[in-house]
Amino acid sequence: MNPIICLFRLAITFTFRTMVLWVFGYGSLLWKAGFEYDERMIGYIKDYRRVFHQASTDHRGTPEYPGRVVTLEAKEGEVTWGAAYRVSGHDNEKLVLSYLDLREQEYDQKSYVNLYTADSSETPALCNVLVYIGSSEISRNKFWAGPAPLEVMAEQIARAVGPSGPNYEYLFLLEKSLRELDCVDEDISELAEAVRKYMNSSNGPNSSDDVSGTNGTTETQSISRKQQHDVCNGV
Ligand code: SIN
């Protein structure tokens, strides 16, 4: 065989064998990766903060009553803690990417970031880590919910329910996951506290005017929502 072709083939084989994908999770990917991975690395990304500014109509809300889930907002000097997952092998990578592209379909942006760890705050532990972001570009991101007063967000989260379950469960699971990682995110703790307060008040979602229309169950979801739920249950 022509040595050039032989070398080319070797290079292609080597590239595919050593191909590695790292995905950074800062929301539901923390408690449910939903795919097989080889390694999980706890760390943080720089110049972003975690915000509940993304609407959810496919997991934790419906088009009629959207929930709120996290996205990242660029902010110099801030850091966002989370976990990066390593997936190796060309076929696995393709499988995981198609799973995530469906699961995170309401996020309009895929970015590549550096990951730092507690031991390496100057030199990144990982480069080119994939992260899904719902940008604040309303022309591109139709699920952008934007900021709102704490009490307004708390009420929305307390009441919304989607195919993956109640919106408040997403927030509480996030709070728990961050606690388990030993990461304090004061904004998340404050929002979780406001939701608990709202739920314990007489206006809570168990009162008669349940605006989500599901009263905490997902019975009224359509078949396609049910199918999505089966793929992404718990997201
Ligand atoms: C993530 O977890 O990284 C993205 C946001 C989400 O799916 O909750």
TrEMBL record:
Residues 199-225 have a biased composition (Polar residues). Residues 199-235 are annotated as: Disordered. Pfam families: ChaC. The keyword Membrane applies. One of its GO terms (cellular component) is cytoplasm. One of its GO terms (molecular function) is glutathione specific gamma-glutamylcyclotransferase activity. InterPro entries: ChaC, GGCT-like, GGCT-like_sf. GO terms for biological process: glutathione catabolic process. Its EC number is 4.3.2.7. The chain crosses the membrane at residues 7-31. Keywords: Lyase, Membrane, Transmembrane, Transmembrane helix. This is glutathione-specific gamma-glutamylcyclotransferase. It comes from Ceratodon purpureus.
